[in-house]
Structure formats: C-alpha cells, structure tokens
C-alpha cells in the first residue's frame, strides 16, 4: 500500500515535535471537522469522501522513505516516534451521502494530541474536495429533474482529482463518468463515444468527410452510439448522421452554441427525418443554472465537466479540523468569524412524520441517548454520526458507495421544498446547540 503519511502540512509535524518535547503529546483530545458556513448561494452540503478518508488512514504509515524525507524537518526523537506511528483512537462521523449544515460535526476524531493532530490535512483535503464536488453534483441532479447526467470533467482537473471527482459525482446521483480509472477503482459506470478530433481526422485535401467518420464510428460501436454533430454545420451533421445510421441512431450530441435553441431545432429535424427515438445529448460548460434553464427544452442527457470539477462550479466546502476538548475540558477558538464551539458533540436530525426535516440539533457527546430535546415532541429524531474507527481499526462494513448514493437520494427528498432551490438563501434547516458547555 502506498503511504499517505506525507499528504500533510509541515506545521503538523513541527507541532508534534514540540508536543513530544513538552510532554503534551499524549493528552486525550477531541478534534472535530465542521463547516462554519455554507458556500455563498448554497442551502445544504453533501458529505462525501468518508470512505476515502478511511482508506487514507489505513496507509498513514511512516516507512523508511518517508522518514528519510523528513530528516532535517524534525528531530531524531520525532522521527523515532513517527516510525512506530499507528492511529489508535476512535473516529465517528456522518455517513457518506448525508446532508450537512453550518456547525454539523461531520467527523469526530478522538485520541492522543500527537496521533490525532497530524491527520488534519489528509482528512480535510479529502472531505473538502469530495464534499464540494458532491454538493455541486447534487444541485445539478436536482436541476436535471430525472434526466441523466454524465460526468466528463477529467480533462479539466488533476488526474487523481478526476477519479475522486467522478466518485463523488456518482454518489450525488450523476449516472456515469467518462473516467475509466473511476470505473475500475470504484465501479462507477463509464460512458463515452467520440470527440471532434475523430470527425476531423477524416478530413482530406478535397474537404471534410463527416459521413465517413460517422460510418466508422457506427461500424465500431453500433447504431446505438452517440454521434457528435456540431463539428461543422449542425443541420448538415444531423442529416448525415441519420442518413448513415438510420432512424434507430441512439443519440446526437451538441457541444457548443445556444443549446436551448439548437436542441429545439435538432429535435424538429430528427422528428422530420423519422428518428423520433434518437436522443439529444448536450454538453459544454454546463452548471446547475444552465441545466435548469434547459429543463423545458427537448434535451435527454446532460454532459457536465468544468463547472463540476473546478472551483468555479464547486466552491470549497470550507471544512475545518479543530481541537474542541483536551482531557475532558472543552476548548474553543474565539477569533472573529472563526469561532468554534467547545466540547465533543453528537448531532441529531429532527423531522416531521412526513419525513421533511425541520432542524439539526447538536448536543454534548455525554448526553444520554434518550435525552429529551425541547421542541421535538411528536417529531422523529435520528442520530447522524456512525462509528467509523475503534482502537485504530476501521469498523466492519461501512456503507458502500451504492448505499450512500441511495441514502443521499432519500435525504434530498426530505429537504423542505425551498431547500432545493438554486436561489440564494439561508441554510435549508437551522442548527440548534443544546446545553453547550463553557469553553476555555
């Protein structure tokens, strides 16, 4: 297994070194992952990446190569400590596919200060990235209103981020990915046919030969394939596609121009040619707003890329990893706009009998399981955190990717209707702190 131990920040190891010298490395601590606020315009967030965090924890080992790389960064005593490092604490967290809101204790890490503090960067880098992608994808899926979406953003991001993005997008309800590594590693369905380069490759000295390109693609992939019809002239492209493939052609794709206008024109042309079952796929810098604007148009499938996998469409989830308790004593940061709530916590979600959620309540983690929560009489109350790691060992059988995908689909149905809107507004439900301890 490849080590994940250096997927961390320099200051985490210098803190470790200082704590070892000061004798505070073993103090019992509680760290929490949460977001102080949602990105501008968002009404909810989606937890994603929990499974990848657990995978990264399995590989968080300092072997000979990692120790050699750290010589000169920390002292010899710290290197000796790192060479024997194994996380031995506990981790609880929201399951993948769960909704989160400002203040939600998305993940809680309990252990000695030293063994827990050095996990900050690897945990945050995974949860922030995957949750941002999943949150954006969920909005796109809602905007698509049941029409399939294919994720095709691999060429717009880092090669490994592309794999994680495809996984997070699938968790959020996207139907397929163009990324074959995501298909191999996570079982995400893959899809794809041809780019403009394929059509252009059939050009010759006497001009283009779009029909030959279409014929070659059909010979290789069958009549159910999708033909890209906007390399030259769309109207001619559609006519060529049907003349070559016949009226049973699977789909045509439009990748540029005014997609709404073009979709209407292409639908009419296809119907006039007798290809009434041929679907229309549109792509080209689509985000949730563009998808929503096309809802009334004859579009069958959306292809999304740049706006899903880059910061413009998937703003950071803004999660932080904060120390909230030391040796049973609540501690909290008081800096302006960076406040935290001290003490270990657990969270419950409150819903009406119809299933619609009304609030999230955050309690002290020592509150009894049957604690009475004021204002919840007659309402359903559900615990949100699940055990993930005990004694440094992953809890058996965490939810699978498919189970998490189903969980999110159900969770989105429980949001108040305004929570699914794309307009700016407050979080879909409020967060209430109950019996908050005083912090030092």
From TrEMBL:
EC code(s) of this entry: 6.3.4.21
Keyword Protease among UniProt keywords: no
Start and end residues of each Nicotinate/nicotinamide phosphoribosyltransferase domain: 150-339
Pathway: Cofactor biosynthesis; NAD(+) biosynthesis; nicotinate D-ribonucleotide from nicotinate: step 1/1
Any one of the GO CC terms: cytosol
Reactions mediated catalytically: 5-phospho-alpha-D-ribose 1-diphosphate + nicotinate + ATP + H2O = nicotinate beta-D-ribonucleotide + ADP + phosphate + diphosphate
Family classification: Belongs to the NAPRTase family.
The protein's role, per its UniProt record: Catalyzes the first step in the biosynthesis of NAD from nicotinic acid, the ATP-dependent synthesis of beta-nicotinate D-ribonucleotide from nicotinate and 5-phospho-D-ribose 1-phosphate.
NCBIfam families: NAPRTase_put (TIGR01513), PRK09243.1-5 (NF006698), PRK12484.1 (NF009131)
Protein name: Nicotinate phosphoribosyltransferase
Organism, scientific name: Gordonia neofelifaecis NRRL B-59395
């Amino acid at each position: 297994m490849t080590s994940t131990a250096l997927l961390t920040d320099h200051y985490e190891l210098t803190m470790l070194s200082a704590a070892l010298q000061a004798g505070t490395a073993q103090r019992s601590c509680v760290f929490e992952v949460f977001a102080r606020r949602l990105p501008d315009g968002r009404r909810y967030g989606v937890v994603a990446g929990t499974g990848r965090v657990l995978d990264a924890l399995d590989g968080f080992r300092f072997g000979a190569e990692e120790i050699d790389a750290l010589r000169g960064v920390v002292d010899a005593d710290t290197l000796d400590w790192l060479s024997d490092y194994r996380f031995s604490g506990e981790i609880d967290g929201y399951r993948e596919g769960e909704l989160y809101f400002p203040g939600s204790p998305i993940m809680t890490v309990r252990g000695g200060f030293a063994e827990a503090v050095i996990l900050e960067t690897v945990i945050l880098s995974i949860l922030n990235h995957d949750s941002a992608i999943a949150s954006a994808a969920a909005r796109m899926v809602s905007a698509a209103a049941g029409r399939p979406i294919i994720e095709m953003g691999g060429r717009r991001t880092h090669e490994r981020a592309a794999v994680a993005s495809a996984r997070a997008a699938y968790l959020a309800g996207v139907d397929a990915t163009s990324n074959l590594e995501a298909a191999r590693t996570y079982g995400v369905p893959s899809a794809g046919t041809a780019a403009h380069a394929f059509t252009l490759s059939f050009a010759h000295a006497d001009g283009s030969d779009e029909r030959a390109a279409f014929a070659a693609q059909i010979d290789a992939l069958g009549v159910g394939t999708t033909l890209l019809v906007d390399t030259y002239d769309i109207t001619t492209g559609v006519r060529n596609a049907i003349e070559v493939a016949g009226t049973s052609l699977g789909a045509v794709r439009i990748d540029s121009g005014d997609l709404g206008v073009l979709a209407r024109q292409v639908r009419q042309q296809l119907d006039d040619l007798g290809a009434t079952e041929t679907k229309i796929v549109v792509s080209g810098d689509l985000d949730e707003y563009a998808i929503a604007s096309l809802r009334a148009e004859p579009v069958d499938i959306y292809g999304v890329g740049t706006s899903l996998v880059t910061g413009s469409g998937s703003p950071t989830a803004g999660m932080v990893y904060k120390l909230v308790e030391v040796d049973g004593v609540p501690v909290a940061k008081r800096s302006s706009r960076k406040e935290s709530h001290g003490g270990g916590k657990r969270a419950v979600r409150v819903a009406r009998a119809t299933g619609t959620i009304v609030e999230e309540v955050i309690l002290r983690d020592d509150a009894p399981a049957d604690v009475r929560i004021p204002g919840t009489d007659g309402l359903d109350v559900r615990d949100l955190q699940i055990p993930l790691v005990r004694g440094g060992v992953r809890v058996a059988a965490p939810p699978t990717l498919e189970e998490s995908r189903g969980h999110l689909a159900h969770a989105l149905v429980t949001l108040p209707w305004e929570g699914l809107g794309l307009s700016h507004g407050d979080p879909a439900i409020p967060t209430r702190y109950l019996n908050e301890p005083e912090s030092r």
